[in-house]
Amino acid sequence: MNHLDYKLLYALSIVIKQQSFEKAADVLCITQPAVSQRIKQLEQLVAQPVLIRSQPIVATELGKKLLSHYQQVQQLEAELLPQIILDQPESTLTVNLATNADSLATWLIGALTPLINQHPIELNLIVADESRTLDKLKDGEVFGAISLNDKAVSGCEVTQLGTMEYILVASPEFKQKYFTNGINQQSLKYAPGAAFDQKDDMHIKFIEQHFDLKGGSYPCHTVRSSEAFVELVKQGAAYSLIPKLQIKNELVSGDIINILPNIKLTQTLYWHRWVLVKGVYKQISEAIMLTGKTILNS
Question: Fewest beta carbons within 10 Å, which of 148, 173, 283, 286?
Answer without folding.
Answer: 173
